[in-house]
Design a protein that fits this description.
The complex is a heterodimer of chains A (260) and B (261).
Chain A lengths: L2 E6 L4 H13 L4 E4 L10 H4 L9 E6 L2 E6 L1 H11 L10 H36 L3 H9 L4 H12 L4 H24 L10 H10 L2 H4 L10 H11 L2 H7 L5 H14 L1
Chain B lengths: L2 E5 L4 H13 L4 E4 L17 H4 L8 E4 L2 E3 L2 H11 L10 H30 L1 H5 L3 H10 L3 H12 L4 H21 L13 H10 L2 H4 L1 H5 L2 H12 L1 H7 L22
The chains are: A alpha+beta (260), B alpha+beta (261).
Chain lengths: 260, 261
């Protein structure tokens, strides 16, 4: 009997990817909410699951074997390969290449810029209100040195002007390229809903609210049409209902705007 | 399928893709281009250039199929494997495939930027710096990606500091150590059976042997594995496409080093 446990934060960015992939495939899973803003991901209980202290992570028990999987996009690919349900990769090899290309573009080029901006306006200010000594201790517990640097910058609001400018350049260019892509075909990289849509939706579902100067009905009609198509999927509604913070609340606001 | 694979000297990303093509046995035309002359940015017959314009890998090979520019060596290797109906370059089991993709991602994110930086400093900086200013203007202007153009400029101007070099050297050593550990149970190939992971890792590591010998000194398993990969007919066929004496010393600006986190 298969048993899947997912350790995740909000249905947003990396955590949302395997949540939505499992939901689309119809795979039942037990959900362990890891409160990133309380640094749950660096506590001993979680480090026992994933010593790197990154979220999400998935534990899959099957046929007496216990498999621990990390890295959100790779987990999605595993979920799609491993379980029955609708195929979330295209059948055509060139379409599959394109799906992978877009996921890497998001994970390694555009996503870090989205998250730098997100951390500077959302995560940083929320966490900053805590006791500095407690925060310092929390940062010291982070296993990966580069994540320690990133958290320090996010908490102290110390992203440099040039880093922020570069992130804004990438977000602006990335949105323009996505708009172009969605003018060529109904979904990202192919004519069907795939892992690339799940991946990119998780970082762009709130664009009309978070980047109103770059995205919206007039500026990016193709993205808006695609967002509506994805928003109305049952699996998306169910997944976003699992959110506990304001991030998920934004889902409702955008839904209203798209349908209005 | 009328596709053309444009590639540089068989090293780094071009070596991975040429060897993968040989493994898959597909009939696709290969055209050598001079990456350091900027020829990758003046290809003709491309109607959809997005994956070329925004390629993360740097000066990697470009497969043009149906007017679309296809890039990123790992994904091109997967494409060849799948277009051939399964050439055995990816494990059939879902978990083994996850392990392979995680390995490849580690190598492309950590090893490849480090190897490209060290390789370029040793092998191509002089050549790039010698391009006359009036010609370099055209090379730079043809590069669509701002971040790739920055890496060309940094290479030409020698704007690479000692901290970047030290960081890259430690990443090479870490990659070798990782291979040595992975091969510790006596396995023949990194994932057990031969896969894209072997091609990708070999392609970025083989050229580091002469440059960073100390990193390989205490890694007999990794050395023996490198020799096994080098002996594969597909890798030999790829290396035979070289137009220079020692293709493993031929580099061009590669991927950027991870910006944050």
């Amino acid at each position: 009997m298969d048993e899947v446990t997912l350790y995740h934060w909000e249905p947003n960015a990396n955590s949302g990817k395997p949540m939505l992939a499992l939901m689309e495939k119809g795979v039942p899973f037990s959900s362990h909410y890891i409160d990133m803003l309380q640094f749950d991901q660096h506590k001993p209980e979680y480090l026992a699951i994933n010593p790197q202290g990154t979220i999400p992570a998935m534990v899959h028990n099957a046929n007496g074997q216990r498999r621990v999987l990390t890295e959100s996009t790779a987990i999605m690919e595993y979920v799609n390969d491993c379980f029955a349900g609708p195929d979330l990769m295209p059948a055509d090899a060139q379409d599959s290449w394109r799906v992978r290309w877009w996921m890497k573009f998001m994970d390694q080029w555009l996503g870090p810029s989205f998250s730098m901006i997100g951390w500077s306006v959302f995560v940083g200010p929320m966490v900053r209100q805590r006791d500095p000594a407690e925060l310092d201790a929390a940062i010291e517990r982070i296993p990966l040195p580069e994540r320690r640097v990133a958290w320090r910058k996010a908490i102290s609001g110390n992203f440099s002007d040039s880093e922020m400018a570069e992130s804004r350049r990438r977000v602006s260019l990335g949105i323009a390229k996505l708009e172009e892509e969605l003018g060529k075909r109904p979904y990202v990289g192919s004519d069907q809903y795939t892992l690339a849509d799940i991946n990119i939706f998780n970082s762009t579902y709130s664009l009309p609210l978070s980047q109103p100067d770059l995205a919206g009905k007039d500026k990016t009609p193709n993205i808006m049409r695609w967002l509506k198509r994805v928003y109305t999927r049952d699996a998306v509604k169910k997944t976003w209902a699992m959110g506990k913070t304001d991030l998920a609340h934004r889902y409702g606001l955008i839904m209203a705007e798209i349908e209005g | 399928m009328s596709a053309i694979l444009y590639h540089g000297e068989p090293n780094g990303a071009s070596l991975t893709v040429l060897a993968a093509l040989a493994e898959a046995g597909l009939d696709i035309a290969c055209r050598h281009i001079d990456l350091l002359a900027g020829e990758r940015h003046t290809l003709t017959g491309i109607t959809d250039p997005v994956a070329l314009d925004l390629c993360i890998e740097g000066e990697g090979p470009v497969l043009v199929a149906g007017g679309e520019a296809m890039t990123e060596s790992v994904f091109l290797a997967q494409y060849f494997d799948e277009a051939a109906g399964g050439a055995g370059l990816q494990p059939a089991d879902a978990y083994a495939r996850w392990e392979m993709m995680m390995w490849c991602r580690q190598m492309t994110e950590r090893l490849s930027p480090a190897a490209a930086l060290l390789g370029n400093l040793a092998g191509s900086q002089e050549q790039v710096a010698a391009i006359p200013a009036r010609d370099f203007v055209h090379v730079a202007a043809a590069i669509v990606s701002d971040d790739l153009r920055e890496r060309w400029l940094a290479l030409r101007d020698g704007a690479i500091d000692s901290a970047q070099v030290a960081d890259s050297e430690s990443k090479i050593a870490a990659a070798v150590l990782r291979c040595e550990k992975q091969l510790g149970d006596g396995r023949e190939w990194l994932m057990g059976t031969f896969s894209i992971a072997d091609l990708v890792t070999y392609s970025w590591l083989a050229g580091m042997q002469p440059l960073q010998p100390a990193a390989f000194a205490d890694a007999p398993l990794a050395q023996a594995w490198l020799a096994r990969v080098a002996a594969r007919p597909s890798v030999q066929a790829a290396l035979a496409k070289a137009t220079v004496q020692d293709p493993l010393r031929a580099w061009a600006p590669g991927p950027e080093i991870n910006r944050w986190g």
